[in-house]
Fold these 3 entries.
Entry 1:
Amino acid sequence: MKKDNWIIKAFLMTFFIALIFNSVSNVITNKCNNILILIIVNIFFIFIGIIFDIIGTAVLTANESTFHSMSSRKIKGSKEGVYLIKNSSRIASICNDVIGDICGIVSGSVSAIIGIYISNKLNISVIITTLVISSIVSSLTVGGKAIGKKIAIKNSDKIIFLVAKFMNKFKIKIG
């Protein structure tokens, strides 16, 4: 019986990606007194979460035979596309669960900092401000992912081919 170390790999991957994302957001939020930059950082993390959710959904619905056909014609990125689809459950888990969840947590932390910053500047309740900001961020995240899922399902082969070409161009290997 083959031993699967996926749980350990997912744990370590999550730990290090979260460490990097949180470090970046902490450096920016601690050094920044500009609300606009904080909002841009938050939108960036929301956007990254949505993009990876799109990729995770697309890989589950893409058609493997399309990429085998491309591979037989020696189209760059087709082998990476086949690999992505053959490992779709693992790739979807990385994209949706690992990166998507980390982005959600980081954007939540940044939204709390934005709420505190706004409440201090305007001298209003921290609780109300952070609730409103967190609700806006949650709505943008969930709404963006809902729209993204629809796009991913309709355009799965195109999306996976873009990811596969990117992987091929930058020599990115997974697994």
Entry 2:
Amino acid sequence: MADSERSAQEREAARLERERRRAQQRGEAVVDESAVSPDGRGAEPPELEHGAPELDLGGAEPPELDGHRPVIPAPDLDDEPTDQPTGEGLEAPLGTRRATHLDRLRTQGRRGERAPVRPRRGRTSPVRRRARTLAPSRSSWVGRALSVVAILVGVLVIWFLVELFQPFHGSGQGRITVTIAPHSGVSQIGDQLERDGVISSSFFFNLRTILAGDRGSLLAGTYTLHRDMSYGDVLAVLTTPLPAAKVTSVTTVPGETRAQIDALLRSQGVKGSYRSDTRHSPLLDPVAYGAPRSTPTLEGFLFPDTFQLRSPISIPALVADQLKEFKRVFATVKESYARSQNLTPYDVLIVASIIEKEAATARDRPLVAAVIYNRLRHHIPLGMDSTTRYEFNDYNKSLTQSQLASPSPYNTRLHVGLPPTPISNPGLAAIEAAAHPAHVNYVYFVAKACGNGDQRFTASYDQFLTWSAQYQAARASNGGRLPAHC
């Protein structure tokens, strides 16, 4: 009987020891059930001197210690039997209960152990809190940057629309006359209006024209506009057909001088001064044609033709038409031969102006040009009375001896070379003859008496003297009048 009880106690002690070790590994505490009295209260542990005695459990009865139940040491876990006998003879373990959380804390406190700290639910770690703190700051910076960009874009759009539609623009001030040439493109018109100060930007004018659908509706003509007009006002003017205006034809004859044209216009009652308006013009610079910078007037560049001008006639409009036509016509003339003779375009124009005054027929033009070229080549004075007549603006009376002896640079009897400026405004035929003279050796020519303007040309000085005597005799018999027509 004693052997069976010990065997059961040993097994129970081994079980308790296993429970205790497992609890230690899990961080739990297990109450020693053998220390609980039958009435449920824990028995006082025996007071032992010098620690607990070692017991020999080799089959002997455990000694009684002061009337208490013996404490049986747990056997080694490795010696636990694999089968446990069951039956009524085995006693169930008494006072066994699962340790509570408070008991575990107390046990760990007694053992000097520290319970693991678990983070509370719903709280974030400092790293996460810092990340959440930094994230809003970055997003806030991006948001502010996007706001600034949006504001700048908005301001730019508003500025663009104001410049394009000009809601606060006035109707302009002053007056300016603008002539839109036929077949002008929108870009050309915009550039012209910007140069004249009518609009502020050719780019916005072109864009406004496209938006208004008026690219093909701009009309050529002469308009009276204002400076600093709005694009809408300009489009309204340029897309409205001009009323039919009264037009007057003005014809200038090839070979006429500025003084002669001025006298003609005055006789017709045209207001203004042609001579004053033909000194200089922004439309043409004589220097570009080889003229000296000191060239005093536009003589020679005022192309002769018939011009249609709005009434009343405007002299600046006439001069502008003459200069534009000259530039167009002169650009078609080939000057290679003249350049080979060291003549500039301005020199060709001077030669042409002399031809207009000296040659009366189309046949004589290249021959007169040949005489001028040959005399220049041989350094012989031209001896043309027409240059002296230009100096004195005298084309009807015979030249006096004092006029023929004048030291003026236009006196080609005394000075070698060409006069300093053209002496008339030549037409295209005279300009072509000046650029392409006849290839002959003539150095003299004399008007043929009763030849209706024809000239006689020769390279012999003696022949020239004979013909000159005949001409003077015919003139004397004609009462001193020129014997051109008999």
Entry 3:
Amino acid sequence: MHNTIVVFTKVPKIGDTKTRLTIKKGGILTPEEALTVYEGCLLDVINVCIAAKCGEVRICYNHDGDREYLEKLLNKTSDRSQIIEVYADKGGSFDECMQFASDYVFKNRGEDRLADSILIVGGDIPSLQPFVLQDAVRKLEKLSCSESGRETAIRNCGTAIQQVGAALVEGACQEGGFSVVGFTYTTPFDFNRVFYNAEGTTALDMLVMKALEKDIPYGVIEAAPDVDIPVDLGSIIPVLKSLELAARYDENIKVPQNTIAVFDKYGLVSSSFPPVR
């Protein structure tokens, strides 16, 4: 099965990137520091996608983002030549932008599609590891080959001949969200109301509800926390330190060196309150 990994990101911009980490919004960083933190995260995520070697790497960025600035950042990745395409979304809500990211790849399920399956990865999950993406692809392949996967694909695509069945996998993050989602081109799934809905349903709950409604074979992979608010920042620092140590003894661990370097530059450390006696 031909897979692609799409890193879904905004082009970093001062005053518009990770604002909930800034002092103005109750955080601890300046706008410039928040920008640098995100750039470190994004570089590490892209490097993991390249290292995973389980799909072509593409970047989907916001339609009004600075493409020239993005290219300068991509030149700092481990191997720019492995990013085979960079494309802009069409704007709109987060749901609509995410939908375009996958529609662009699947081309209405036609023969000109760019891949049979897609993994969409957020740019703010610096603890992500190559083996997590590899596991996602394995599960997509296994689920899509199942009887239920083929039956759902046939119902969705209106043909009895489908080499790739339906499948959906996700990697959860905090607060009922997800940071990685993958599915095949025959999967009857869309992002409508996933992130924005009047009922207040969490994004992860919406994935589950859509999978149940359409009988989509569903799998989970290791959770990868994102960094949106100060508590996320405090939580991720010890995680990255643990990865740095574990990498001494496990060659499969990819150290998020760019993010760690930014934390070190700004002297960011994590602490907790002592228990009350």
